[in-house]
Each structure stands twice: as C-alpha cells, then as structure tokens.
Amino acid sequence: MNVPGLQLARVSKIFGSSVAVDRLDLDIAEGEFISLLGPSGCGKTTTLMMVAGFEDVSEGSIRIRGRHVENLAPEHRRIGMMFQAYALFPHMNVAANVGYGLKMRGVAKVEREARVKRALAMVHMEAFADRSPRSLSGGQQQRIALARALVVEPDILLLDEPFSALDRELREELQHEVRRLQQELGITTVFVTHDQEEALLMSDRVAVMCAGRVEQCAAPAELYARPATPFVARFIGRGTLTEAAVLEAGANHCRLSCLGREVQVPRPLPVAAQKTANVFFRPEDATLRTSPEGAGAGLSFEARLEAVYFHGASSLAELAIIPSGERAFVDCTALSRHAALTTGETFTVDVPADRIHLVPLKP
Ligand SMILES: Nc1ncnc2c1ncn2[C@@H]1O[C@H](COP(=O)(O)OP(=O)(O)OP(=O)(O)O)[C@@H](O)[C@H]1O
C-alpha cells in the first residue's frame, strides 16, 4: 500500500476564541504538488506552520510519510521550507547558507561541500558559492533559499508565497524552475498562495480554502470545469452563478426554470430532491448577441452591458442580468471584432444546455 506523503486528519487551530483552521482533512500523495489557495485569512499559512511545527495543532493529527509529527520539533520533521522573505544569513556566504542545515545535522565537511555544490547546481547558482547574499538580486536569493530547502533532502517541501516579492518575469521563471525540480526530485510539496493563476499553473491539485476549511481539492481543470461549491465557483476564474427552480429531476437530466425560461439540462441534479439548483457557466461557454429574436435551445436571457475587459487575445463582457442585476460574464472576443459594444445596451446571452454545470447547494 502506498503511504501518502502528507496526511492531515481533522486538524484545527484555535487562537483564543477564533478558529483559524477548522477540522481540515487533506491527503497528499507522495511526490504530489498541492497548492493551498484562498482569500486572505482563510488559514493557509497557519496550516503550513502546523505541518512545519512552528505552530502546535489544537486538535487532529499530521503524518508525514505515515509518521506522526504533531509532537516533533520542526528540525526533526524532515521538511524543507521556503518563504516570501528569503531569510538568508547576511554574514555567511552563499555556500555556508546552503550548508547550514547540514552542519546543524552534523554532516561531515567533505559530504557537506559535495551536497552544497549539487544543490547549487540544481538551481544554476554554482558560480555564486562565495558571494554574500547581500550582493544577489531577489530572484537569485530565492534560488539560494530553494537550494537550502532541498539540500537536506526533505520528505516534504513547504513553500509560503515564495514568489510574491518578485516581478512578473522572475516570478514566471522561478515558478517553472520550482516545478521542474519538484518533478525531477519527486518531492511532495505544499505551496501556499493567494494567486490562483499561479496555483492552477503549478499544481497537481489545488485545495481551495475558505474560513479554515477545504471547500474543494481537485486537479486545476476539474476545479475550473466542475466547481463543487458556490464559493469555489465564484473564487476560481470568472463565471456566472444563478439560482433556478427544479421542475423535474430525472436520472440523467433535470428540467429547471431559470431566469424566466425553462431549460432542460442533460445531467442529474448534483444532490437529489432539491427544490432549487445553482446554475453555473463559464464565459467561453456562452455567447452574446444584439438581437432578442430567435433564442436557441438552452438558457437564454437579457442583460445590460456594464463593461468590456480587453485582454489582448480575448475580450470579456461583464453584464447585469435583467431585472435581477446579478453579474454575468460572457466571452465577447468574436462579437467585439465586428461590432461596437456600447455599455448600457441590452444584449441576449445564450448558453447551450450541455454547457451548464450544476453546483451543489451549500450544505
Ligand atoms: N498568532 C496568531 N494569533 C492570533 N490569530 C492568528 C495568529 N496567526 C493567524 N491568526 C488568525 O488566523 C486566521 C488565519 O490566518 P492565516 O495567516 O493562516 O491566513 P492566510 O490564509 O495565510 O492569510 P494571508 O493570505 O493573508 O497570509 C486569521 O484570522 C488570522 O488573523
């Protein structure tokens, strides 16, 4: 049987009267890269700090490669860490910084030097071994911090917003580099970020957190296509979420009344015997037209154009659904190329029935 790289079972963290992490369950496979993603204050860093041992758990258990670590000091957990602040020792040169953890573990000098050299080579910084960290750029310092985390050959790598102080280009370069190394080494990794693009780009799976709990943990494409809760639907990417009344619930379809129109969706309700359902669709699954005539089969409604966001390769329309005023987002790349889209004007939005995803109601 495969032992998971990291297991959190009903882990809670309570600070005084406030619950920062609330009975969190997470199983991370050996060699997997998982991101903890969520809004500020949802408990991402606290979760990581409990895994690292810098915060005690209030309740629950944490196992690294099957080994309980709740009562182990951080230095005995076999973890490597990298933070937003590089936290390099300014009075030591790069090689000494990278080798520090090995020295503390009593690794002999010859072996230490060989391992430091290997770790610096991994991050393409061999030529900088004798330099002072102060003489390095932010990106170079972060590479050294990564070498320092990896040199101890940890069981898991914990990364807390390690790129957030870097400019876009460097950030992308390091995202790529970290992912390459992580895959080459096959090291189980937990990555904290509030940047969803970064999380979707880098991870095998993303755990979306809200108020101390994991709302959904899934592969990036799954999260995007099939958000499991209204929070995830709103948080990941752009989308339109609206309620519908259930008229009929079949084994392979359901009939809904949504935005003043009946629509038959070719899938069952996510939870049986609901009276209402959450209808959800992505901007690229809907189309916008100027004429109100000739609705196709599917969902169709009128909305007022509020804004057009030009992204270069694509354009996104933000609309207010008439009459409720709920937000709708529709890709308008094609339409905007041959028609002037004037804000304040009314458009018809069409969504084919098979592009409608039904998000479970909040339990
Ligand atoms: N040492 C502490 N004492 C009291 N409350 C704390 C402490 N550390 C964190 N908290 C609270 O716990 C909650 C979760 O904080 P945490 O830093 O884990 O969130 P986060 O998701 O990492 O947020 P951010 O993205 O802003 O870093 C917050 O409400 C925070 O105020």
Fold blueprint:
Blueprint (H helix, E strand, L loop, with lengths): L5 E10 L2 E11 L4 E5 L6 H9 L6 E6 L2 E2 L10 E4 L11 H11 L4 H14 L15 H14 L4 E5 L7 H18 L2 E6 L2 H7 L2 E6 L2 E6 L1 H6 L4 H6 L4 E10 L4 E5 L2 E5 L10 E6 L5 E3 L9 E12 L4 E7 L5 E5 L1 H6 L7 E6 L5 E3 L4
Parallel strand pairs: 3-8, 3-9, 6-7, 7-8
Antiparallel strand pairs: 1-2, 1-4, 4-5, 9-10, 11-12, 11-14, 12-13, 14-20, 15-19, 16-17, 16-19, 17-18
Helix pairs in contact: 2-3, 2-4, 3-4, 4-5
The chain binds adenosine-5'-triphosphate.
Provide an overview of this structure.
The protein has 363 residues and is α+β, with helices and mostly antiparallel strands. The protein folds into 2 domains: 6-229, 3-Layer(aba) Sandwich (Rossmann fold); 238-359, Beta Barrel (OB fold (Dihydrolipoamide Acetyltransferase, E2P)). Helix content is 25%, strand content 34%. It is built from 9 helices and 20 strands. The protein has helices at 44-52, 94-104, 109-122, 138-151, 168-185, 196-202, 220-225, 230-235, 333-338, and strands at 6-15, 18-28, 33-37, 59-64, 67-68, 79-82, 156-160, 188-193, 205-210, 213-218, 240-249, 254-258, 261-265, 276-281, 287-289, 299-310, 315-321, 327-331, 346-351, 357-359. The strands form 4 sheets. The protein has a 6-stranded mixed β-sheet, with helices on both faces. The chain has a 5-stranded antiparallel β-sheet with strand order 13-12-11-14-20. Strands 15-19-16-17-18 form a 5-stranded antiparallel β-sheet. Helix 2 packs across helix 3 (109-122), helix 2 packs parallel to helix 4 and helix 3 (109-122) crosses helix 4. The radius of gyration is 25 Å and the shape is elongated. The two termini are 33 Å apart. The mean pLDDT is 91. The structure holds adenosine-5'-triphosphate.
